[in-house]
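Entry 14. Structure prediction run on the chain below.
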Amino acid sequence: MSNLPPEPVDPPGVPDSVDWDAFLGGRAPGEDAPEAAPVAAAPVAPLPSRRTVRGSHIGGTRSGRRTQLAPPREKPSRKGAWGCLIVLLVLVGLAAGAVAFLQGPIAQLVASVQGPADYTGTGEKKVVFMIHDGETGQDIAQALTDQDVVKSFDAFYDLLLKESPAPVFQPGAYQLSAKMSARAALDALVDPANKLKQTVVVPEGTAAVDVLQLISEGTSLPLADLTAAAADLASFGLPAEATSLEGFLFPATYTFPPGVSARDAVNTLVDRQFTALDDAGVAPADRWRTVVLASLIQREAGLAPDFYKVSRVFLNRLDPAQWESGLLQSDATVAYGTGKTDLVTTTDAERADAGNGYNTYVHPGLPVGPISNPGDLAIDAALHPADGSWLFFVTWNLDTGETIFSTTADEHEAAVVKWQAWMKEHPEYG
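Output returned:
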C-alpha cells in the first residue's frame, strides 16, 4: 500500500532543434544522453543533447492553397444563407479543433526558439542545498528543480552541458536562494564562498544509515566514527525497545561547531527528536509507539493533508473490529526490512517472506521498529488522525501525489484501475 512516487526520473524536455522529417513523420530523431560522471570522482563532462522530438505527428501532408476565380452568382436565398452559415460554423469548428490539435507541436516549436523555462536574477528567500557524494549533473539539476531553486531541469542542465571547462561540484551544503536563474545557481555552486561549513540538511523520512552519511558529507567527521558512535545506544536514552537510532534522528538543518565529536553530532539529532516529541505532548512512555507509527506515515504519505488520512487508515487496520487480520500491508515496511531504504516498492517474494520482521503483509500490527526518521507533521498526524472509515489508499497520480482513500475493496479496486491507467500513460514510471 505504498503511496510515494519512485525516485525522480529525468523529465522529458523540449527540442533543441526541429527535424521536420521526423516531426511530420512521428518518429524520435535522437536518444537520451548518457548519464554524467559522478561529481565527487570527476567533472561533469559535456554530453550530447538530451532534447528530442518524441512522437510528434501531424496527419496528412503539407500543400499550397490554390486560388480559383468563380463566375458571378445571383443573390442567395434565405435558405441558402442558412446553408452558408452552417458551413461557416462547421469550418470554424474544424479550425478550432485544428488549433487545439496543433497546440502541443506549436508549443514545442516556440519552446525550441525561446529556450527552457528559467527564472531571472539571483533569487528570493535563502535555501540550503546539499550535493551528495556520487551525484551526477543530472541529479543536481533535478534536485535544484525539486527545491524550486531553478525553474526547470532543462534550464540548468542545458547550461551545464555548455560549460567549458566542465564544473566540478564538491559534496556538502550550499547557501542558495529560491527562484534563481540557472546561471546564478551554477555560479553559486562553484563559488567556494557559498559552501557552508559543518552544515547538514536531513530531509524528513531519511533512514538512519543515510542520515549518518549526510552528517559525514557536511562535516569533517569520518563515517566510521559516526557509525561507531551511533552503535552506543545506551548513551542516548532511547526507549527500551530500540535496537538502533532509527526514528530518533530528527530531520532538520544543522550547523555544528568546529571540532564537534561524532558522538555529540549524533546526540544533537537525538535530543532534537526528544524535543519535538515533548513539544507535541508525547509522554516518554508513548515515544516508541508514536515514533514507529509516525515513521510509517512519513514514508507512505505524500501531500501534507494526506498525512492525517494515512494515519487513520493504519489505525483503522489496527482495530480488529474494522480489519480482522490486523495486517497493515505496507510496502514501505517490507522494503525497509530488505535493506532498501530508498524504495517503497516490493516483489511478490519479498511480501511473502515471513523472515522479514518488518513485513506487515505477514506480521500483524505495527512493524518491529521505525522505518525512517519522521518530522513534526508525521508526529502530529500520528497523534491526531483524521476522522474516517478508510481502509485503503492508493496514489493514482505520481506526479502530483494525488491519493484516493477508500472504505470498501470495490472502491479501492476502482482506484487501482485509475492508477494503472495513469501508469500506462506515463511509461517513464514503469
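The longest helix spans residues 78-114.
Filed with the rest of this week's runs.
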